[in-house]
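Researcher: Please predict.
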Amino acid sequence: MPHFDMPLDELRRYRPDMTEPEDFDAFWEKTLSAAREHGLDARFVPVDAHLSTVDVFDVTFAGFGGHPVRGWLILPAGTTEPLPTVVEYIGYGGGRGLPHERLLWSAAGFAHFVMDTRGQGSGGSAGDTPDPVGSGPAYPGYMTRGIDDPDEYYYRRVFTDAVRAVEAARTHPLVDSSRVAAVGGSQGGGITLAVGGLVDDLTAIAADVPFLCDFPRATTLTERPPYREIALYMKAKRGAEERVFRTLSYFDGVHFAARGTAPALFSAALEDMTCPPSTVFAAHNAYAGSERSMEVYSFNDHEGGGPYQQGVQLRWLAEHLKG
């Protein structure tokens, strides 16, 4: 796949003309306040994962609506003092998986909290968290569930779960609550940006080829799912564009980036037709924090930097969380 988006020099300057809802901050303050009316009820149950280098805890905490959300807490074996912590969010369709699939961050000496994504986990890694909230007519997938109303939109629940995941991780005595980073790739990168905009005391964030950014451009630029789900929904729901894009404006990574304060590491791939590079740069260029950087992979698709980007993240997070 050749380069299909803007040239790199234009990407570095790209700032979309987007309309932010006037009540964006009030919407999220109301949403998180309602979630916090429910006790966090974070529970960490030790499990034998047959792994000698880590200690594993099966986690449950109360997310949006008080609904139980699952996760893993994975610690280097024998940890006795609080550790800097990486909270990870998962890509589209995947769930928390199994502990032996999630060993990178504990191997680097971090506590690692993995959040399951409600309703997902039937494609790729397995999930264990149902989404008990229904929606009106939707295109198959998650992108259009409740899309006619910001209050009902699927990602309102997911982003709320993600903020509560940080709060849950911080309750564990072996987590250093003052040194917490949020990380994720694709959908997980989009969730990371949301958390970075909603939690003001993170130490760092790392958003790898993030999804859920610059919806107006993404939905008209790529034919690939998951963005294509939105276009196919509007193909059937003629005349819904204004209502749909109003809803999506409350969940756009560009608007969350404009509120981010923690040091941020991004990555983009110039042949990525799943999360087009201009949409990733839109969030990066809007990022409000004083420290931001972008790794660019010129000849990669949505796999981005893969293990090379993980190597960059390992060095970068060691500097910010341990240095």
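Model: The mean pLDDT is 96.
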